[in-house]
Write a structure and sequence with these properties.
The chain has 11 helices and no strands. By secondary structure, it is mainly α. The chain folds into 2 domains: 75 residues, Orthogonal Bundle (Cytochrome Bc1 Complex, Chain D, domain 2), CATH 1.10.760; 98 residues, Cytochrome c-like domain (Cytochrome Bc1 Complex, Chain D, domain 2, Orthogonal Bundle), CATH 1.10.760.
């Protein structure tokens, strides 16, 4: 009897393992199915527009989670919701697998603009360069240590020492992401406009962050490789 139960247990383990393998997305199929995504997220998931997130190198599980959130209207986005609603479960898995298989690109040093600058003109003065470096240094400290006085948690706890995220927990990889997109995402969390769930970990953290802290940690993360 014990032997039969042992064999049954082994069979169930292998059955679960194989079903998990077959549930993974198909990279080639995902590349073909991602054609509607390229205008915003780039051919390989490296968006050229800083307000749209890079998807290259992101954990497939996290991409799937977000696409299902758009599809089920659990995450607010008039742009993404219609696209996600049209995707089947298999298509979501395939697209996620494709983007996860690609390498995220690196970013240039962030540039600070002021109200006195001409539109679209980059300011490269020593003062502005020092401001960027100071913000990145502040962001590095916030990422690793948080802010004890205001009880802002350190990003490293969930997103790892190198911004690699946590695949089993579906915490996203952040390294190399556009700073502008990160600023928008954190601001959306802060203002409760990111999703229909207003008490998630990120909402609670972002509410305690100042605009300067959001900018600083976003600049730092954008430089991580």
């Amino acid at each position: 009897m014990i032997k039969k139960l042992l064999l049954l247990s082994i069979a169930l383990v292998f059955s679960t393992a194989f079903s998990s393998v077959f549930a993974e997305g198909n990279i080639s199929a995902g590349k073909a199915k991602s054609s509607n995504c390229t205008s915003c997220h780039g051919d390989d998931g490296n968006s050229m527009m800083p307000t749209f997130p890079k998807l290259a190198g992101q954990h497939a599980e996290y991409i799937e989670k977000q696409l299902f959130a758009f599809k089920n209207n659990d995450r607010n986005s008039p742009m993404m919701a219609p696209l996600a609603m049209a995707l089947s479960k298999q298509s979501i898995e395939d697209i996620a697998a494709f983007y996860a298989s690609n390498k995220i690109s690196s970013n240039p040093l962030p540039v600070i603009y002021s109200d006195d600058d001409d539109e679209d003109e980059q300011v490269s003065s020593t003062d502005k360069s020092d401001d960027v470096k100071n913000l990145i240094a502040l962001g590095n400290n916030l990422y690793r240590n948080g802010n004890l006085k205001t009880k802002v948690s350190a990003c490293i706890a969930c997103h790892g020492p190198f911004g690699e995220g946590n695949k089993p927990a579906a915490f996203p990889s952040l390294k190399g992401q556009h700073a502008d997109y990160l600023i928008k995402a954190l601001t959306d969390f802060k203002k409760d406009s990111r999703s229909n769930i207003s008490n998630s970990m990120m909402h609670l953290i972002a509410r305690k962050m100042t605009e300067k802290e959001i900018q600083a940690v976003s600049y730092h993360i954008s430089m991580m490789k």
